[in-house]
Amino acid sequence: MKKRFFLSIICATLMANPVYARTTYVSGSLGIGLTENALWRGGSIEDKLNNSAVVNGAVGCNINQGRLELGVGYQSHKYSDFHPLWGDMSFLTVMGNGYYDFNTNNSVSPYVMAGAGLVNVHTGNDFMKQTAFAWQVGTGICVKVAPWVAVDLGYRYLKPEGLHSILNDTLAWTGHNIIAGVKYDFR
Q1: Which end of the chain has fewer CB atoms < 10 Å from its terminal CB, N or C?
Q2: In this structure, what DSSP letter does residue 165 have?
């Protein structure tokens, strides 16, 4: 129930087109997910995970010096200390994100961002299949290369909360994502 309510609020906020919204946009990014090890049972068991590719996409609107967007991301990390049959641990996120773009009066604009939403975590051996709350914070630089196109280089700290396996073992995991992307403003 809480998940549906939270998603409804995010969708309603992002779909509302305020009078002062200048433009809407779409964006996409690729990067690398630098993962911390998965810690089970309060850290008594540690699984080593390999770094992986990260793919993100979003739709949003620019509002004065800020941005609101609905983003979707995916990353899948292979276990590096288990037999290959264990598969991988994948993370699919749906997040409402807010950005603040610092006005520099030129084509380069640093930003900070924060987001919250849901993450679906799945292991290849079905030891974990769960949707939970997740949050992220980040920073980066946007460079306008045309009046309607900007390229982006950024960092995201991604943290799912309340994860547990089918045996009710708790899981703590954190991702550090370095991404490069393109944002297209509709004018």
Answers
A1: N
A2: -
Strands (E) located in the chain: 21-35, 38-40, 45-47, 52-63, 66-78, 88-101, 108-123, 129-146, 149-160, 163-164, 170-172, 175-186
Q: Do 148 and 187 form a contact (C-beta atoms < 8 A)?
A: yes
Contact 186, 167 (CB under 8 A): no
pTM: 0.84
pLDDT, tens digit, for every residue of 5-36? Answer: 555 555 555 455 444 457 899 999 999 999 88
* Tokens of residue 143, six digits: 């460079």
Location of structure tokens 């961002």: 113
Q: Which two tokens stand for residue 148?
A: 């309607």
Number of structural domains, the chain? Answer: 1
State the residue range of the domain holding 30. Answer: 2-186
Helix ranges, the chain (H): 2-15
